[in-house]
UniProtKB/TrEMBL annotation:
Lineage of source species: Bacteria, Pseudomonadati, Pseudomonadota, Alphaproteobacteria, Acetobacterales
Keyword match Oxidoreductase: yes
Pfam families found in the cross-reference section: TPP_enzyme_C (PF02775)
Full protein name: 2-oxoglutarate ferredoxin oxidoreductase subunit beta
Organism listed in the record: Neoroseomonas alkaliterrae
GO terms assigned for molecular function: 2-oxoglutarate synthase activity; thiamine pyrophosphate binding
Gene Ontology biological-process entries: cellular respiration; small molecule metabolic process
Length: 351
């Protein structure tokens, strides 16, 4: 069975958020993934981020492709809109939904196989078009669902469970997203909830193409010595650029830091991203430096995590197309059929 509903009962004194919902209200069905799968931790982080931001679950549209990762939307936000599409096709289905109804919050969930192999073109074009979405890749370096073949994000020299060595160059989806013009790019690790939850919050508040590459170990097929996507390997090679606090417009900023310790980026909706730099002088608003930093640290054998790039004044696809402000699916007959005179004018202009 792949769908196990959770009992609705919960403790009456569970904490509630600004809209009176408990964390339980953001959950979905019981997960059927392997115990210890990184993907379940990402679902928990999405639940926490949406609870923290007091997002009404029914305002979210969660879309995915095919894979263990793409099954996960079943395990969070049970009251959201959901569409489990075809392998590698989530981005175009999401783009279509966003064009029809710009009023929802779009969350695309995918895997490294789903986005870096069969869906690579779809991934690229949804990012470069500036679809207003949070696009999360749950990256385990293998095709988990089909039993552990190397994926296109497997590192050169990574060793499979049965001993085969990967001889192909890896695709770094975060670096590609930077190059493609994503206006928000971050990387994190499913085992680091403190880093991951604020990054998801910031991505959800970002009004543009927000891409998150989350390393998410597959305990069944890629968590052994020699794998570069195992829990141990990622912990040992994680180079966190910064730590993030997200302040929504209604909150007062209370934490204080010494001057120079924090970079503040105010997003379009007024939310403030407070970045505590950790080990580098990386400027997350500089696209060229973001690219340079990913490549430089990779050459040193490190996995760069944290907020890699953010454009504080992003524009999204609806603005590029000049579409009307109301959702297309809410337009009535009068707007859709402006009458014979208007049609005549258009025809005359084409003659
Ligand atoms: C068109 C098509 N080709 C191939 C498959 C077989 N298939 C299902 S899931 C998958 C790969 C999943 O890998 P990934 O996206 O990394 O997800 P994971 O299971 O690792 O989370 C493949 C090749 C399919 N379902 N449809
Ligand atoms: S096979 Fe791997 S990716 Fe799939 S549920 Fe199990 S641990 Fe997770
Ligand atoms: Mg995978």
């Amino acid at each position: 069975m792949s769908y196990l509903p959770k009992p609705k009962l919960h403790h009456p004194k569970l904490p509630t958020n600004a809209i009176g919902l408990t964390r339980r209200d953001y959950e979905g069905a019981i997960s059927t993934l392997c115990a210890g799968c990184g993907h379940d931790s990402i679902s928990a982080a999405i639940i926490q981020a949406c609870f923290n931001l007091s997002i009404p679950p029914h305002r979210v549209a969660k879309l995915s492709g095919i894979g263990c990762s793409s099954k996960t939307p079943t395990y969070f936000l049970g009251a959201a809109h959901g569409f489990n599409s075809v392998h590698g096709r989530m981005p175009s289905v999401l783009t279509g939904a966003y064009l029809a109804n710009r009023d929802l919050i779009y969350l695309g969930v995918s895997g490294d196989g789903d986005s870096a192999s069969i869906g690579f073109g779809q991934f690229a074009h949804s990012i470069r078009r500036g679809v207003n979405m949070t696009y999360i890749v749950e990256n385990n370096g293998v095709y988990g669902l089909t039993k552990g073949q190397f994926s296109a994000t497997s590192d050169l020299g990574s060793v499979a469970k049965k001993g085969a060595v990967n001889t192909d160059q890896p695709i770094d989806l975060a670096a590609i997203a930077v190059q493609l013009g994503a206006t928000f790019v971050a990387r994190s690790f499913s085992g680091d909830k403190e880093q991951l939850v604020p990054l998801i919050e910031a991505a959800l508040l970002h009004e543009g193409a927000a891409f998150l590459d989350v390393i998410s170990p597959c305990v069944a097929f890629n968590n052994h010595p020699g794998s570069t996507k195992s829990y141990d390997y990622v912990r040992e090679h994680n180079e966190a650029l910064n730590r993030l606090d997200v302040m929504v417009p209604r909150e007062t900023i209370t934490a204080s830091y010494r001057p120079g310790e924090v970079t503040e980026v105010t997003q379009h909706d007024g939310s403030v991203l407070r970045l505590r730099k950790l080990r580098t002088e990386h400027d997350p608003t500089n696209r060229a430096s973001a690219m340079h930093h990913i490549l430089e640290r990779r050459a040193a054998g490190e996995i760069v995590t944290g907020l890699i790039y953010v454009e504080p004044e992003p524009t999204a696809l609806h603005a590029h197309l000049g579409t009307v402000p109301q959702p297309l699916n809410a337009l009535g007959d009068a707007e859709l059929c402006p009458g014979v005179d208007a049609l005549e004018k258009i025809n005359a202009a084409l003659r």
